[in-house]
Design goal:
With about 350 residues, the chain is of the alpha/beta class. Helices cover about 50% and strands about 10% of the residues. The strands form 2 sheets. It has a 6-stranded mixed beta sheet. Strands 1-5-6 form a 3-stranded antiparallel beta sheet. The radius of gyration is 23 Å and the shape is globular.
Length: about 350
């Protein structure tokens, strides 16, 4: 074999391997760079939701008239469950209230105009200075994705290939194996766990919230309302639909035990003062009282997300009557008094049981 033949064969092998690799990455599309949807990529792992969802918005069709923003809790709401709205769920893990504007501006630029509706899921534990003081944006992701040949480079990435293979295996098995996986319609699913593990994970979350999020270092961010006002100012023609995310009653009791009810009341007051109303789901009710609706007391299963979407869409079919209350300037003080009383009752009842035992 002469030198030229050897070089030709090596180049041919390299081309075949690279072509096969890039074709496989395109077929599975773990970074959501394309619209390919097939039986081999219906289960998608979470690599980095900020990156994956901004890529999807940039490179895939974006016909939506409404946007959903929130933390990992809100990722479990099916964007297709909103009646009368074409919603894109742009929620990501650990989203801060100071990120909302960056996310909204990015999506708005892609759409070319303001959204008809912006739905925002608010988490109480994100009201502290520790969780909401730092300014966070999508700038680094946007800059990365705007670089020349961004998609081309990812065709030849070993890491992307590994993610593609993982998605391929999960899709063939048809199993949800992670805390959160997605399908090709941007719908998050969660792995179901047994009651014993749920109880252990809930207790772990309670301890973490008591010591980290609700603990002695907690301080309500006095600028919280101003961050929300800026959103309204930047989108004067948008209808804002705001809701509080429902944590389990066990975790709500931890809030009460940590003496955070005054901060919870202040939070509701701030949200109502800015938006005129808030759909409140964060209080003891038939959904939050059932620990089986959660896998850790902190994150609810998608079935609960469906109830939230239906309630926000004024579709009460199948939604428990006690799940979700619209708080307004005219009724929120009365409703807070009821919630405070119930929260204190549950804590007193728990304390009495522990003392009796």
């Amino acid at each position: 074999m002469n030198y030229k033949h050897f070089v030709f064969k090596v180049l041919l092998i390299v081309i075949v391997v690279l072509t096969a690799t890039s074709s496989f990455i395109y077929l599975i599309d773990p970074l959501w760079m394309f619209s390919s949807s097939n039986r081999f990529n219906q289960v998608q792992t979470v690599i980095d939701e900020r990156e994956q969802k901004t890529i999807a918005i940039k490179y895939q069709p974006f016909p939506y008239d409404s946007l959903l923003l929130g933390s990992s809790r809100s990722t479990y709401i099916n964007q297709h469950d909103f009646k009368g709205m074409d919603v894109y769920n742009f929620s990501v893990s650990n989203m801060s209230v100071r990120e909302y504007n960056s996310f909204l501006e990015y999506a708005k630029e892609r759409r070319g105009k303001e959204f008809k509706n912006v739905i925002i899921g608010l988490d109480f534990f994100k009201t502290s200075l520790d969780q909401s003081s730092a300014l966070r944006t999508l700038d680094n992701y946007i800059e990365k994705e705007d670089k020349p040949f961004f998609r081309t480079k990812n065709f030849f990435s070993w890491d992307v290939l590994k993610y593609a293979y993982g998605n391929f295996k999960m899709s063939l098995d048809g199993k949800v194996v992670d805390e959160r996986n997605y399908n090709r319609d941007n719908v998050a699913v969660a792995k179901k766990i047994d009651p014993e593990k749920t109880e252990k994970q809930t207790e772990a979350k309670i301890q973490k919230f008591k010591h980290v999020f609700y603990g002695k270092t907690y301080e309500y961010n006095p600028y919280y309302a101003s961050y929300l006002r800026q959103l309204k100012k930047n989108n004067p023609n948008t209808n804002f639909i705001v809701f509080t995310t429902p944590i389990s009653s066990e975790l709500f009791q931890a809030l009460v035990e940590s003496k955070r009810l005054p901060d919870y009341n202040r939070w509701i007051n701030d949200v109502v003062s800015v938006f005129g109303e808030v759909h409140n789901f964060m209080y003891p009710n038939s959904i939050t009282n059932n620990i089986n609706n959660y896998f850790d007391g902190h994150h609810y299963y998608p079935e609960v997300g469906t109830l939230i979407a239906k309630s926000l869409s004024n579709d009460t079919n199948g939604v428990p009557a006690d799940f979700g209350k619209v708080l307004t300037p005219g009724n929120y003080r009365k409703e807070l008094a009821i919630i405070n009383k119930e929260g204190n009752r549950l804590v007193a009842e728990k304390s009495a049981k522990q003392t009796g035992s």
